[in-house]
Write a structure and sequence with these properties.
The protein is an all-beta fold and about 140 residues long. The protein folds into two domains: about 40 residues, no CATH class; about 70 residues.
Length: about 140
């Protein structure tokens, strides 16, 4: 890749931008070598029955190959676990108080506890190994 030259001046065989590559970072002779990596797949949240849901936050657990998604349509609020090709609901309810204008960016997983904040509500946590129904209301005490 050659980000230094103008697009019109780049010689054949060199590129300005690339997708789905990894740049090798080693101390050997192949430092800076490019290799192809797998791309992303678009996943639809189809089993919710609500086509208006929008993902306002997500967290990727690379150790377990799981993605946790936070979804809302401003009236329904969901937290889903995506594993393989299966979406599993973890929590649903209006008490989650998600908003499309307040994305959830502060997310972390410690052992089996998923913590998050959206700068709109207080910081929260759920146990991701328990089934739906574990967290059904907000306890403010």
């Amino acid at each position: 890749m050659n980000k230094d030259l103008d697009d019109r001046l780049i010689p054949n065989g060199e590129y300005r931008d690339a997708n789905n590559i990894s740049v090798g970072k080693s101390e050997d002779d192949d430092i800076g070598a490019l290799e192809n990596i797998l791309g992303n797949t678009l996943v639809q949240v189809s089993n919710t029955g609500n086509p208006n849901l929008e993902i306002i936050g997500y967290f990727t657990d690379n150790n377990n190959n799981v993605v946790y998604t936070f979804l809302t349509d401003e009236t329904s609020h969901w937290i889903y676990k995506y594993e393989g090709s299966n979406y599993t609901p973890l929590v649903t309810g209006s008490f989650l108080n998600f908003s499309k204008s307040s994305p959830i960016i502060g997310i972390n997983l410690v052992e089996n506890l998923l913590f998050w904040t959206d700068d709109r509500n207080q910081p929260r946590k759920i146990n991701v190994t328990n089934t739906l129904g574990y967290y059904t209301k907000e306890n403010l005490t």
